[in-house]
Amino acid sequence: MSSKLVLKPLWSNGSCIYAITFKKMSAEDRREVELLADEAGYIRNDGIWAPPRVAGRMLDFFRAVANAGFGLEFDDPEDAPFDLQRLHLPVDTRGALEWLRGFELHHLSGWTPVQAERRLDGHHFYFRARGSYWRFELGGNERHTRSPRWWHEESWPSAA
């Protein structure tokens, strides 16, 4: 399995697309992989592929590529800067969270932060994230007029 399909995740407003490269793959093998991608529902635009929106189709594609004898590689280094856009919530998850009593979740695009508030063990908590920075507070109150008893903040990955 020396020929591989390399997928590099690119995130934008919580959605993932992939920059595609082919390692040691003939033109014929490349065309076979592209046909498998088309059958799975990928939207191909030169070297950028958007995954299918139907659940399970990505896994079917990965299996089909492996069954055809090609390798898969994900170019997503562990030490790469963390991108909070990955916190994108599917509609059903967001709906379930919004039904929790006393829970607020704000997820807006651009530079607006992700925020969440609720009670935890009888104490107010507040979470806020923007870019690679995040902060978690426990204690305080809903109006933010009382300081939290405990808080932690950092930019990810941690410099520690």
Summarize it.
The relative contact order is 0.13. The protein folds into 2 domains: 4-74, Translation Initiation Factor Eif1; 89-155.
Total helical segments = 3
Described by strand count, sense and barrel closure, the largest sheet is: 5 strands, mixed
CATH architecture of the largest domain: 2-Layer Sandwich
Low-confidence stretches: none
Helix content range of the residues, please?
Answer: 10-25%
Q: Main sheet: which strands, in order across? A: 3-4-2-1-5
Q: Name the structural class.
A: alpha+beta
Overall strand count: 10
| Name of the top-level CATH class of the largest domain | Alpha Beta
β-strand percent reads 35-45%
Whole-number total of structural domains = 2
Tell me, rounded to a whole number, the average pLDDT.
Answer: 78
Distance between the amino and carboxyl termini = 39 Å
Please give the radius of gyration in angstroms: 21 Å
CATH topology of the largest domain: Translation Initiation Factor Eif1
Shape: elongated
Q: Give the SSE string.
A: EEHEEHEHEEEEE
Q: Can you characterise this structure?
A:
With 160 residues, the protein is α+β, with helices and mostly antiparallel strands. 21% of the residues lie in helices and 38% in strands. The chain has helices at residues 27-40, 57-67, 91-98, and strands at 4-12, 15-23, 43-45, 48-50, 71-74, 104-106, 114-120, 123-130, 133-139, 148-155. The strands form 2 sheets. The protein has a 5-stranded mixed beta sheet, with helices on one face. A hairpin with a 7-residue loop joins strand 6 and strand 7 (114-120). Keywords: Plasmid.
